[in-house]
Amino acid sequence: MANEKTKGEQLKEKLLSAPKSAFEAVSAAELKKAKAFAVDYIGFLNAAKTEREAVAESVRIAEAAGFKPYAEGKKYKAGDKFYKVNRDKAVMFAVKGKKPVAEGVYFTIAHIDSPRLDLKQVPLYEDSELAFFKTHYYGGLKKYQWMTIPLAIHGVVVKKDGKKVNIRIGEEPGEPVFCITDILPHLGREQMSKKVTEAFPAENLNLLIGSAPFADEKVGDKVKLNVMRLLNEKYGIIEDDFLSAEIEIVPVAKASFVGFDESMIGSYGQDDRVCAYTALRAVLEAKAPEHTLLCVLTDKEETGSDGNTGMQGDYVVNFVNELADAEGTPVYKALANSKCLSADVNAAFDPNYPETMDRRNSAKLNYGVIITKYTGSGGKYGTSDASAEFLGFVRTMLDKGKVVWQTGNLGKVDFGGGGTIAKYIAERDVDTVDVGVPILSMHAPFELSSVTDVYMTYRAFAEFDKK
Ligand code: MN
Ligand code: MN
């Protein structure tokens, strides 16, 4: 009789929810798989620090898994794997399903752009015998976090003759790195008495790139000239070529395991390359799905999804239109039957800042993939708000697949907020919900995720089309 549960205990077990962390919920063997997956993921993060690099690296991985470039007009059959690149900054990976496209496409959509500093169009100048690049920050970031840390330069320059030059410097051992200065604390009294939003002006985010002059008495701006000379020798570019360039400044720090127990992953750009990589792996490993799978890695999410490589653009719908057209189906029918996991990160509960989050509705590290019903801000503005029916579908799918999952919320109501691409695909008449990984220090140069959550997010995507 001693071991028998009381009425209250029985009732509690039956009626009340009891969230379990991945460490309690899954076997040691599965935790081992999660660790192995994280090793691959860390490799991806180090290879793909910009949206262009993420496209190139995912195409490389996909081709190794048998994916071929999409051929217009080709009749695809069940199990065929193909991809289409959009302007080197976004990419779509498809696996043709057994069912016709008219019965719906299963989308997983993540973004591969991350907060960073972009060079301005006229970036190069000299001041007080130091050479700098002017920058304009991209996405929502805390400016002070980008000062006094080693930074690398990545990007492309299109020269006057139309030739494209790739730049990637600051990543390999032996290469120089770059940096933004900050005033010493001894002289920072005025700066430190200001509000953080005012203490670090955007126009002070100038990248220090040189201090040695070109030895010639007759010219001014000798340091600038010397830097341009070196750039010309290395890349064959002249100052005017910056007019047609996209150059991004990103942190040098390599992705690595974090903690004595190596249970976490620290890296730049996990928002949202963590969902990009997990969604990609799931679609690469898909075998003969029922519905056509379409994994989209998109650009420009961090600045509002505008433009022809962002999710407010038409490129994804146009691609579905082509697939539907090939089967004589109007695209709207295909879309109306489609489902989408909008794959993006959400905030993990941070015990150092509990005042910003609602404990009862925040995601926790190691409690699995997050299902976020709505994003937006105050009064649910700017969200597509997934339906109870679609959440029911997702919940059943995750439980059947024994995926560890939790719900999430971006902080306390009226404390701020933020959106994802979910609404842009939902507006196309597609059932959509946000799914993703809990992150600490989101948008910082070094963001944190957990090994188990990354793996559970991959498992969630892999379950999407299973009945
Ligand atoms: Mn994101
Ligand atoms: Mn973001």
General description of the model:
This protein is an alpha/beta fold and 467 residues long. The protein has two domains: 293 residues, Zn peptidases (Aminopeptidase), CATH 3.40.630.10; 136 residues, Aminopeptidase i, Domain 2, CATH 2.30.250.10. Helix content is 28%, strand content 24%. The strands form five sheets. A nine-stranded mixed beta sheet has the order 1-2-3-13-4-14-20-16-18, sandwiched between helices. It has a six-stranded antiparallel beta sheet with strand order 8-7-10-5-6-9. A hairpin with a 3-residue loop joins strand 2 and strand 3. The longest helix has 20 residues. The protein is globular and about 90 Å long. The relative contact order is 0.17. One manganese (II) ion binds next to loops.
Give a quick precis of the structure.
With about 475 residues, the protein is of the alpha/beta class. The chain is built from 13 helices and 22 strands.
Please write out the topology.
Layout: H1 7-15, H2 22-25, H3 28-47, H4 51-64, E1 68-69, E2 81-86, E3 90-95, E4 105-111, E5 116-127, E6 130-138, E7 151-158, E8 164-169, H5 189-192, H6 196-199, E9 207-210, H7 222-235, E10 245-251, E11 256-258, E12 264-267, H8 270-284, E13 292-298, H9 315-325, H10 331-336, E14 339-343, E15 346-347, E16 369-372, E17 376-377, H11 388-400, E18 405-407, E19 417-418, H12 422-426, E20 431-436, E21 438-439, E22 447-450, H13 451-463
Parallel strand pairs: 1-2, 4-13, 4-14, 14-20, 15-21, 16-18
Antiparallel strand pairs: 2-3, 3-13, 5-6, 5-10, 6-9, 7-8, 7-10, 11-12, 12-22, 16-20, 17-19
